[in-house]
Design brief:
- By secondary structure, the chain is an alpha/beta fold.
- It has five helices and ten strands.
- The protein has a single domain, classed as Nucleoside phosphorylase domain (Rossmann fold), CATH 3.40.50.1580.
- Strands 1, 2, 3, 4, 5, 6, 7, 8, 9 and 10 form a ten-stranded mixed beta sheet that branches.
- Helix 3 links the parallel strand 8 and strand 9.
- The longest helix has 24 residues.
- The protein starts with a strand and ends with a helix.
- Bound molecules: hypoxanthine (HPA).
Length: 247
């Protein structure tokens, strides 16, 4: 049974070299996950893969059933989750193509079902979320990035926005003042749901573009995002392969 799951985001809907053992359809008390869980073997290590936006990349960030996805991974018995996510770079250290392992999150999303603790409770539950990501898993990711020769941004605050539209330059300027290093649309409530189910969770973020108004301030095109993600996700694949072989 796999101990580790990888949630693939935009630009990573499958894992190269994954020997697929089984595709498992799971129905959860919270509805349907984004797709079947792919049980496989990569570099001799069992791993579970889930495409966050669905196999055909058709589910927009605000429509993802985060509760079902995380519940399904927990149900499958994994203890650790690496979430791969495309982001826009706000800080100068995150140009397109760069990788970052965030250590904090600010949640700007709204209206997304974001907890397992609301119905049929015996008592009201507040979980600690001071440090949203697992430091051990983060350290592993950072080490593997360095081992493959990547200049990774080792900390950072992930600002999670609602999408699916990109942000205005003023919104990004505000997020910059708030202390956000990067902006993405899927980091929350995924991270908190993993914490609620006691899963060790870390994010490997890939800068797809300068966030609105950053860089030379030009407008952001989907073609640019796709192009940058091709190279960025190539690097993420290298990191994940090495991480699995060193598990
Ligand atoms: N904003 C929000 N999410 C993103 C971006 C962005 O600029 N780029 C990739 N995901």
């Amino acid at each position: 049974m796999a101990d580790l799951a990888i949630i693939g985001g935009t630009g990573l809907t499958s894992l190269d070299g994954l020997e697929i053992i089984q595709r498992e359809v799971i129905h959860t008390p919270f509805g349907e996950p984004s797709g079947p869980l792919t049980h496989g073997v990569l570099n001799d290590k069992a791993v579970l893969f889930l495409a966050r936006h669905g196999d055909g990349h058709t589910i927009p960030p605000h429509r993802i059933n985060y509760r079902a996805n995380i519940w399904a991974l927990h149900h499958a018995g994994v203890k650790r989750v690496i979430a791969v996510a495309a982001v826009g770079g706000i800080h100068a250290a995150l140009p397109p193509g760069a990788l970052a392992i965030p250590d904090q999150v600010i949640d700007y999303t709204w209206g997304r079902p974001g907890t397992y603790f609301e119905d049929d409770l015996t008592e009201v539950t507040h979980i600690d979320f001071s440090y949203p990501y697992c430091d051990e898993l983060r350290a592993m990711l950072i080490d593997q990035c360095k081992a493959v020769g990547l200049d990774v941004c080792e900390t950072g605050t992930y600002g999670a926005t609602q999408g699916p539209r990109l942000e205005t330059a003023a919104e990004i300027a505000r997020m910059d003042r708030d202390g956000c290093t990067m902006v993405g649309m899927t980091g929350m409530p995924e991270a908190v749901l993993a914490r609620e189910l006691d899963l060790n969770y870390a994010c490997c973020a890939v800068s797809a573009n300068w966030a609105a108004g950053k860089g030379d301030g030009s407008i952001i095109s989907m073609a640019e995002i796709e192009e940058n993600l091709k190279s960025g996700m190539g690097r993420v694949r290298q990191v994940l392969q090495l991480l699995l072989s060193n598990l």
